Inverse folding.
């Protein structure tokens, strides 16, 4: 069953066409990796899904049309976006960031408590820094907080934009372990990455985006073995 269906999506900034006629299906419960070079249109695609940019074409979430819907209403439906650069509030504490992420769930105190406990279990480093200002965390810790915030909103589709960017290999591996654990709970993930090897190793399905279009698509393991992908993105 599709969690997300995109049909003929186009995003433009003035005369610049960032996304050109992309159609994509993200299957429920799977990790779909969207790889490609800088400027390929990956981030613009995520921003269209979450209602942050205008677009042409159609986007459906569980058969509900998202076109024209305000960003906060899209979050309320169950779609959360962890942007490139993390998007945390640096002048608030870790705990305040997590609490704020659940602001739409005012009538679900028990559910919020369960999500909070799950974040603390999955991201124990955050539990040691609850009173610390988010802006003083390391890059890896800030990425953990951004993912924890997404979990607090209790969505079942998470859009992740470059979660390993700027992190050491050890921290990137830890972030990817966390993403895999979240997916095991049934959460669908659309993952945008420049690190093609890491993304395709983790994902069920993969898409290669070039110049605003999807150039290749298939099972992630098949893309890992595709000579075109290996030469262009894996350096082998």
């Amino acid at each position: 069953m599709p969690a997300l269906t995109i049909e003929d999506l186009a995003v433009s900034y003035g005369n610049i066409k960032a996304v050109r006629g992309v159609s994509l299906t993200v299957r429920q419960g799977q990790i779909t990796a969207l790889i490609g070079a800088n400027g390929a249109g990956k981030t613009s695609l995520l921003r269209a899904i979450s209602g942050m940019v205008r677009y042409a074409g159609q986007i459906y979430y569980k058969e509900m049309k998202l076109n024209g819907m305000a960003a906060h209403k899209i979050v309320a439906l169950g779609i959360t976006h962890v942007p490139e650069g993390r998007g945390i509030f640096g002048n608030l504490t870790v705990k305040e960031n997590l609490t704020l992420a659940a602001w739409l769930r005012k009538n679900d105190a028990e559910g919020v408590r369960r999500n909070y406990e799950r974040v603390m279990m999955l991201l124990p480093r955050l539990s040691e820094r609850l009173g610390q200002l988010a802006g003083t965390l390391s890059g890896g810790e800030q990425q953990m907080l951004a993912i924890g915030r997404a979990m607090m909103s209790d969505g079942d589709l998470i859009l992740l934009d470059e979660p390993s960017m700027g992190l050491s290999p050890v921290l990137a591996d830890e972030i990817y372990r966390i993403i895999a654990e979240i997916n095991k709970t049934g959460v669908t993930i659309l993952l945008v990455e420049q690190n093609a090897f890491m993304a395709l190793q983790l994902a069920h399905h993969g898409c290669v985006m070039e110049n605003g279009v999807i150039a290749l698509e298939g099972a992630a393991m098949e893309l890992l073995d595709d000579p075109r992908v290996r030469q262009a993105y894996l350096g082998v």
